[in-house]
């Protein structure tokens, strides 16, 4: 995993989830353990869009269960042309 | 014959990717669907009438297509209701499906057939309703029972002189659950005295403001409450031009209905603080106002002479004081707009900070004066009616090419709601809506499209062969606007109704 992307995703996630970065386990389920409800999920995706200039449509987000999934998803997205 | 089966469908539209637009949850049930259902008698003579209602936007499977198939012993009437121009292809395809499957009686009604010439599609097995339902619905039902519909209904009078007091039966709990909240749309007043050239309302409902008696509206509200409805949306275009608005609001307060409601007012509401205060007391939670532009010259150029941008801040103030959420609706891409003007518009909006803002691209809606003018000038470059939905580039703008204007549409949402979210301190409902709008627009999807979470079930290719088979077209031709009959022209001309005359004089 790209360390830079991981660090940036964790920073964004910690702000949205209101937790310290070191409290966020990469393999923790977003919904159950990190209490990511639908509102927080959209808020997280907006914050990631602002950070990386890539959107995360709901149909693509269905398979994102853990923070690690999100980081890997962003890594894949970074290979695509950005919004900026 | 055992029964008359009436299948009322509010058709969806085809999205850019060709899918039939459907959502896991809708914003609100279509008001026309439930109005027509409530207007339909339980029996005609000895024959029982069974009504089915389908709002395609929130139907997640295709079971309802079974209703569009011949059933021996039952006379079926398929009625596509409230059809707007961007839903017209979908309406045609559903009737084509029904005809192909042995249904003999299909009718399409609503804004598009009422205001646009459909003669090239007539005589092919589908009837067109050119008038308000009160004038023609009973006759359509009787003709279906008698065995044959006429090609056209209501071609010599578009509007009923008086509206009957129809009590609306709300959707059942299963249908209410298809929406984000148990909402019912009511339309207690029709007509608009103004002459905005881009607006279809005066062509659909006329300039004479008409309303049924208050008692029927109150009874509709009582039934809604008993039926589990929690929120009312009064979708009439000018609630503040409704002569009996105060009477209705006092009756709602006296009844203790405790039903939060949404309404639409014009910008003249800025001059009527007493009414805003009364709206708040009657439990109005959101007021939609078509501000459109902050440029007075632009507003005058499209006939929206009653909008004074210097009064918009007053609307926000009055709403905030009355505990009402102001919703400003904005149009971008007026002929004089350029990118700087639109960005400036958003900056002004941020200073006023309405709690809800919606944005649409100026669209020459078929049947309007603006459509006729643009068409005469050869400006309309889009020939697919599906795209005339307020989110697409349909005419050759003098300063803004397609990509730039469509980008600006989504930018307006992203920028404005991004601003509200950064400012913080939003009430829970506003926060949820702001996040939704910001996120959806970031995906280049229009947040006001009609629901939450799109689902893909069927596409145009599933139906296009039927459209060709029945109507012999791939796309319906861009229509000519339908002229008003002499009777309707006269009714429109005689309108002289200014309910707030004393207030206007005091403040303009």
Report what the structure shows:
- Chain A has 84 residues and is an all-alpha fold.
- Chain A has a single domain (3-77), classed as Orthogonal Bundle (Non-ribosomal Peptide Synthetase Peptidyl Carrier Protein, Chain A).
- Helices cover 54% and strands 0% of the residues of chain A.
- Chain A is built from 4 helices and no strands.
- Chain A has helices spanning 3-17, 38-52, 58-61, 67-77.
- The relative contact order of chain A is 0.21.
- The mean pLDDT of chain A is 89.
- Chain B has 508 residues and is of the alpha/beta class.
- Helix content of chain B is 36%, strand content 16%.
- Chain B is built from 18 helices and 15 strands.
- Chain B has helices at 31-39, 88-100, 111-115, 133-146, 173-176, 201-204, 214-226, 245-255, 273-281, 296-301, 312-322, 339-352, 369-376, 402-423, 428-442, 464-471, 486-493, 501-507, and strands at 3-10, 22-26, 43-44, 47-55, 74-80, 105-108, 126-129, 152-153, 183-186, 231-234, 261-265, 284-292, 325-332, 356-361, 451-455.
- In chain B, strands 3-4-1-5-6-7-8 form a 7-stranded mixed β-sheet, with helices on both faces. A 6-stranded parallel β-sheet of chain B has the order 9-10-11-12-13-14.
- In chain B, helix 12 (339-352) packs parallel to helix 14 (402-423).
């Amino acid at each position: 995993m790209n360390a830079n992307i991981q660090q940036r995703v964790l920073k964004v996630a910690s702000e949205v989830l209101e937790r310290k970065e070191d409290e966020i386990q990469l393999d923790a389920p977003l919904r159950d353990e990190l209490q990511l409800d639908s509102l927080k999920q959209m808020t997280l995706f907006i914050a990631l869009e602002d950070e990386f200039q890539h959107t995360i449509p709901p149909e693509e987000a269905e398979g994102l269960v853990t923070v690690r999934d999100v980081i890997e998803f962003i890594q894949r997205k970074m290979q695509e042309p950005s919004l900026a | 014959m055992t029964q008359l089966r009436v299948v009322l469908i509010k058709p969806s539209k085809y999205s850019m990717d060709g899918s039939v637009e459907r959502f896991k949850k809708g914003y609100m049930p279509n008001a026309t669907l439930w109005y027509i259902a409530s207007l339909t008698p339980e029996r005609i003579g000895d024959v029982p009438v069974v009504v089915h209602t389908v709002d395609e936007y929130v139907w997640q499977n295709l079971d309802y297509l079974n209703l569009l198939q011949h059933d021996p012993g039952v006379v079926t009437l398929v009625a596509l209701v409230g059809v707007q121009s961007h839903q017209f292809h979908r309406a045609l395809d559903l009737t084509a499906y029904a005809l192909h499957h042995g249904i003999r009686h299909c009718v399409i009604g609503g804004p598009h057939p009422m205001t646009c010439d459909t003669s090239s599609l007539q005589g092919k097995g589908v009837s067109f309703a050119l008038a308000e339902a009160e004038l023609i619905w009973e006759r359509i039902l009787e003709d279906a029972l008698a065995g044959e519909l006429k090609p056209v209904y209501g071609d010599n009078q578009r509007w009923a002189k008086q509206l009957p007091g129809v009590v609306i039966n709300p959707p059942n709990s299963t249908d209410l659950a298809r929406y984000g909240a148990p909402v019912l749309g009511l339309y207690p007043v029709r007509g608009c005295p103004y002459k905005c050239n881009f607006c279809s309302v005066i062509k659909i409902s006329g300039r004479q403001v008409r309303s049924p008696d208050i008692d029927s509206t109150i009874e509709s509200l009582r039934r809604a409450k008993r039926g589990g409805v929690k929120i009312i949306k009064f979708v009439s275009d000018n609630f503040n031009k409704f002569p009996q608005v105060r009477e209705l609001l006092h009756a709602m307060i006296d009844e203790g209905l405790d039903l939060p409601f949404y309404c639409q007012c014009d910008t003249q509401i800025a001059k009527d603080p007493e009414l805003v205060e009364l709206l708040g007391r009657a439990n109005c939670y959101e007021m939609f106002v078509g501000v459109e532009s902050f440029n007075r010259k632009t507003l005058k150029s499209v006939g929206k002479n009653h909008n004074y941008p210097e009064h918009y801040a007053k609307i926000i103030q009055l709403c905030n004081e009355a505990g009402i959420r102001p919703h400003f609706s904005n149009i971008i891409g007026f002929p004089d707009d350029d990118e700087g003007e639109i960005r400036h518009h958003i900056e002004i909006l941020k200073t006023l900070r309405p709690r809800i803002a919606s944005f649409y691209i100026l669209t020459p809606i078929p049947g309007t004066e603006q459509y006729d003018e643009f068409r005469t000038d050869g400006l309309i470059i889009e020939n697919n009616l599906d795209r005339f939905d307020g989110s697409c580039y349909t005419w050759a703008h003098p300063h803004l090419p397609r990509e730039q204007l469509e980008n600006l549409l989504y930018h307006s949402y992203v920028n404005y709601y991004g601003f509200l979210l950064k400012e913080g301190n939003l009430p829970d409902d506003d926060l949820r809506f702001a996040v939704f709008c910001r996120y959806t627009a970031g995906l280049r999807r229009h947040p006001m499209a009609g629901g939450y979470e799109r689902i893909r079930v069927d596409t145009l290719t599933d139906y296009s062969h039927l459209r060709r088979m029945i109507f012999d077209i791939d796309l319906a031709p861009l229509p000519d606007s339908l002229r008003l009959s002499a009777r309707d022209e006269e009714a429109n001309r005689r309108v002289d109704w200014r309910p707030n005359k004393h207030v206007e004089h005091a403040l303009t």
